[in-house]
Write a structure and sequence with these properties.
This protein has about 60 residues and is of the alpha+beta class. It has one domain: 2-Layer Sandwich (Alpha-Beta Plaits), CATH 3.30.70. The protein has 2 helices and 4 strands; from the N terminus they run E-H-E-E-H-E. The chain has a two-stranded antiparallel sheet. A two-stranded antiparallel ribbon has the order 2-3. The chain is globular and about 30 Å long.
Amino acid sequence: MKVKIDYESCMGDRNCNDLCPEVFQYDEEKLVSHVLVDEVPKHLEDVVRQAVAECAGEAISIEE
């Protein structure tokens, strides 16, 4: 699974970072989150799906 963030839609509320800091990191300069990994580790897929569902800006998308 791959995940990406639409930076224009990201509201910077950091929910994804709180849920899965192994995959998402907040950029203090750009005020958005970004993805740390090319491929989401299998054991983190469910929590990444939760981050997608809870993203207020609907900025996170998944490629299976």
